[in-house]
Structures are given as structure tokens and as C-alpha cells.
Amino acid sequence: MSDLRDVVARAIGDGPEAERRAAEEEVCRRLAPRLRLYGLRHLRDETAAADLVQEALIVLIEAMRGARIDSPELADRYVLGVCRNLVSRSRRSAQRARAFEDAVRPLSVAELPPAYSELDATRLAFCLGQLGRRAQRVVTATFQEDRSATEIAAELSTSPGNVRVLRHRAVATLQRCVEGAAA
Amino acid sequence: MSCPIPHELLVRYWADDLEPGELDAVEEHLFGCADCSAASARVAALARGIAELIPPVVVGADIARAEERGVHTATNEFRPGIAKEAWLNPGTDLLLHRLLGDLEDVDKVSVEILLPDGSPLVSFADVPFEPDQGAVIIACQRHFVMEFSQLSNDIDVVVRRQLRDGGERRDTYSVLHRIGPAS
């Protein structure tokens, strides 16, 4: 499989239009999962993340066609900058979407594979139950209650550094437990 | 597959626990690296799974959070040695089994779930509890009940309370799961 930069190079190169369009589609396909993860991380909402994917790819295609990406090495950083702007401004550009929607239509976000596999909830509950009480508390306080390491440390009468160690080990243990069952 | 970003840093990324400079550096790398993006997706899946999970043994805050999300609960109280039915009726998502017992002076609680023939189904070594509640609370989700039903409608739950003075109390509760509507 060719590197993303090679594909970007084909998308912005001097080749036939059909080849450039196919390369654009491939760029979208490669970047969409990363964009979606970024959206989930910052927006914490599937629909908003899907919107972000769509908008960021539209901006990227617009930039590639407008020759504003002159080096393939810059494409991933460019699209990250776009994402940051979209998230910070949280605005939608319907006009731009209309102008370039044909380019993105082949890549319907609904048809994309999920950004990550859904876990078996029963298995995850079992694995969580295998953790010690403190480790369990650290991961649920972190991911269910959005509490900081400092807040959790105060609750557990320990240091934020220790909370980070507990959390990292707990997540690694859970991954082994959940993914081991799936393997 | 090899991701140069330490796993601990990816966990902090999804725990929203990075300094701005670290966040920028991690995201720039994630956008350009397929391996790290895949590793990040695995952590994201776990974080998302935990965020939506109801642990198998719960305390009041877990129940409140679940109910805020629209989870419909039904609570039953159980005393040691007395078998009792717990009905999963239409519209109920979560059965809460309150296993009554003195939790004062208790340092640690473990729970073991057994089939009627005594064979172990699952065990949790160090579960959360609230001493003033006077009960260990098992959260039995609809899909758990359906899974239990494949094996047996009836289970025994053995609760071991490790006391601060070094002693131990052991009680067995018999839960007879029934799928409603109740007659």
C-alpha cells in the first residue's frame, strides 16, 4: 500500500483528471478515520464528529484543487489545522459544502468503517470487575465523570502522578482482557 | 505494527490530560502516522466503552448516572439464604440486586457468582461498596439476564466481607431471574 504522501502527490499532480479524482478519493478514505477520531476526542459526539470529517475533507479537496497544498508532506498537517479551526469556531459552511459536495459524495461518512470497533459490553463489564476497586474508580472517574487526575487524586488520597500510573495500567489491563477475548 | 507514542501518552490524550504543547505534538503525529492512529483508536474504543458502561457491582452514583441517561431500573432486596425472584419486565433495562448485609467495619468486599450446581460463573475480587448503604448492589443488565437465561435463570451470589480486624463474613444470596411480564 502506498504512503499517504504518494497518494496526495497523485491528487495534486499533473496526471489525468480521472487519476487525480481517484487519488482525492483515496486521500479521503485514508484520512477519514483519523479525522473522525479527532472529532470524537474534541467534540465527544458521533454526529458532530461525522460533520467534522465531511467539512475537513471538503476544505482539503478545495485546497488541493486550488493548488494551495504544494507539498504532499504538508497535507496531514494542513488538515489537522483545518480540524483545529473547525472545532474552535464550531461553524459550518453550507455554501462551501454545496460547491464541493460532489467531490466528497463518493465518500459517504455513513459508509465509512467506524473510527473504532465497538467493544463487547458484557465482556468489558466483566473485565472492569476484575480490576481492583481503586483502579476501577480511576477509570470510571476519568471516562464517565470527566474528572482530572488532580481531582481523582484528592478523592483517593494519592498523587496525580499515581493516578496516571493507575489509569494507564488499568487501561492496558482492560485492553488485554477485552481484546484477548476477541482474538 | 509499531507506534512510537507511548501507550501512557495515548491514555492521557483520551483522558483529556495533556498540556497544550503535548496535545499539539501528539495530534500532529497521529495525523501523519497510521500505526499510532490505529493504537489511538483502540484506546478510544475502550474509553468510549467505559463511558457508557454500567459496572457489574455499583454504588449510588453509578445508578444515578445510569438513570440520568434514561436507563430504567428495578430494584430488589435479597437476604442471605432466602431465594427470591427478580423479574425483568418490559421497559426495564437494569435489575439492581441489593444484597443486604452489614458493611460497617468492612475493609474489602469480593463477589462470586455461581450456577445452581456450584460451578463458578464469574468473580470480582475487590468491588466498590458504600458502608452506609447496608448492601452490595449487583447491576444486572438486560443482556446479562438474557445470557444468564441461556445457562440458568437462577444464580447464587457469594459475598465475602473482609473485616478491618482481619475476620471475614461470607453470605450467599439466591437470585431467581425471571423474564416478564410478571404473572
Question: Greatest interface and its residue counts?
Answer: A-B, 48 and 47 residues
In this structure, how is the largest beta sheet of chain B organized? 5 strands, mixed
User: Kindly, what is the distance between the CA atoms of the first and last residues of chain A, rounded to a whole number of angstroms?
Assistant: 25 Å
Shape of chain B: elongated
What secondary-structure arrangement, pairings included, does this model have?
The complex is a heterodimer of chains A (183) and B (183).
Chain A: H1 4-11, H2 17-43, H3 46-65, H4 75-89, H5 94-104, H6 121-130, H7 133-143, H8 149-156, H9 160-182
Helix pairs in contact in A: 1-2, 2-3, 2-4, 3-4, 3-5, 6-9, 7-9, 8-9
Chain B: H1 7-14, H2 20-32, H3 34-52, E1 57-58, H4 60-68, E2 73-78, E3 84-88, E4 94-100, E5 106-114, E6 120-124, E7 135-141, H5 142-151, E8 154-163, E9 168-179
Helix pairs in contact in B: 1-3, 2-3
Task: Write up this protein.
- The complex is a heterodimer of chains A (183) and B (183).
- Chain A has 183 residues and is mainly α.
- Chain A has helices at residues 4-11, 17-43, 46-65, 75-89, 94-104, 121-130, 133-143, 149-156, 160-182.
- The longest helix of chain A has 27 residues, at 17-43.
- Chain A is elongated and about 60 Å long.
- Chain A starts with a helix and ends with a helix.
- The radius of gyration of chain B is 21 Å and the shape is elongated.
- Chain B has helices at residues 7-14, 20-32, 34-52, 60-68, 142-151, and strands spanning 57-58, 73-78, 84-88, 94-100, 106-114, 120-124, 135-141, 154-163, 168-179.
- In chain B, strand 5 (106-114) and strand 6 (120-124) form a beta hairpin.
- Helix content of chain B is 32%, strand content 34%.
- Chain B is built from 5 helices and 9 strands; from the N terminus they run H-H-H-E-H-E-E-E-E-E-E-H-E-E.
- Chain B has a 5-stranded mixed β-sheet with strand order 3-9-8-5-6.
- Chain B is an alpha+beta fold.
- Chains A and B meet through helix 2, helix 4, helix 6, helix 7 and helix 9 of A and helix 1, helix 2, helix 3 and helix 5 of B.
